[in-house]
């Protein structure tokens, strides 16, 4: 069981992949400058980041690695001024993703793919702030993006729309996992993930 504990090398990998994921997150997040595109941002992130996250899962096949990796971005966003909603919802999503991965013993493509699909839903927490911590989110958003942008977002972010956004993120995660598998076939075979 000792070989299943996280070591310094694993923590370094978590940090490196966490930085790469953050760059993708904020780069792809630029599409959110156009309010309507903000609703498809989680789907696009799920697709594009799939290769990075699936490679991470082949490199670090240990308990709690995905959880730690997945909490880096929400904690950075919280430190940058986002509300508690991002951290709390992400915490729930990451625990579920970690448990799914554990069912597959960390080396099953099927369970890693499902885990990543659930993982991809965490970014919806940034939009859920509009519904669950509205005053604080509006204050922060008006300061950064202006009143016209916030008015448009307020009309777009509803509970029914968020259900569709979460579904899009989940499906984007599945597609991203399959793209990652195709691009990283050699790494998956070496790691014993089929």
TrEMBL record:
InterPro entries: CHP02185_IM. The chain crosses the membrane at residues 12-33, 39-57, 64-96, 116-135, 156-179. Keywords: Membrane, Transmembrane, Transmembrane helix. The keyword Nucleotide-binding does not apply. This is Energy-coupling factor transport system substrate-specific component. It comes from Peptoniphilus gorbachii. The lineage of its organism: Bacteria, Bacillati, Bacillota, Tissierellia, Tissierellales.
């Amino acid at each position: 069981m000792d070989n299943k504990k996280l070591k310094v090398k694993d923590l370094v990998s978590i940090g490196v992949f966490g930085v790469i994921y953050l760059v993708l997150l904020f780069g792809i997040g630029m599409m959110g400058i156009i309010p309507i595109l903000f609703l498809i941002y989680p789907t696009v992130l799920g697709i594009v980041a799939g290769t990075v996250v699936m490679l991470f899962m082949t490199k670090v096949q240990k308990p709690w690695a995905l959880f730690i990796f997945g909490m880096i971005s929400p904690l950075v966003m919280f430190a940058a001024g986002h509300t508690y909603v991002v951290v709390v919802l992400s915490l729930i999503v990451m625990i579920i993703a970690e448990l799914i991965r554990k069912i597959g013993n960390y080396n099953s493509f099927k369970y890693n793919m499902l885990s990543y699909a659930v993982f991809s839903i965490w970014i919806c927490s940034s939009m859920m702030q509009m519904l669950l911590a509205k005053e604080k989110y509006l204050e922060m958003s008006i300061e950064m993006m202006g009143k016209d942008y916030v008015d448009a977002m307020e009309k777009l972010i509803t509970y029914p729309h968020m259900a569709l956004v979460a579904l899009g993120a989940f499906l984007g995660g599945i597609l991203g996992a399959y793209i990652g598998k195709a691009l990283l076939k050699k790494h998956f075979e070496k790691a014993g993930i089929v």
